[in-house]
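Example record

The entry below shows one chain as it appears in the dataset: sequence first, then structure tokens.
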Amino acid sequence: MEKFVITQRINNEYQFNLKAVNGEIILTSEGYVQKASCQKGIESVKVNSQDASRYDRRVAVNGKDYFVLKARNGEIIGKSKLYNSKSGMENGIASVKLNAPMAAIVDETLKK
């Protein structure tokens, strides 16, 4: 099952990863000071992932393709992994569009 996984970084910021059915991370958030902000970020991904204009395709300094998902205000709410090809990146975007709206939320910070 696809899911958003909330974790806490070593600096105590919260982040989420959207994981596909195979467990692969397809989108990672920025760090959030408050867990509530992290949860709002997930809701923003669920909404904005359905709008093709919210995806910004980019090339890293090493030449690999990746994308960012932006909110309506232009702020980045998630970043993909680096892909070896443009087609791989496009498959990643398709996966976010497909998986994000119905993905469960797993809060791993509750296990501490």
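Notes for this example: Strands lie at 3-8, 14-19, 25-28, 55-59, 65-70, 76-79, 104-107. The chain has a mean pLDDT of 95.
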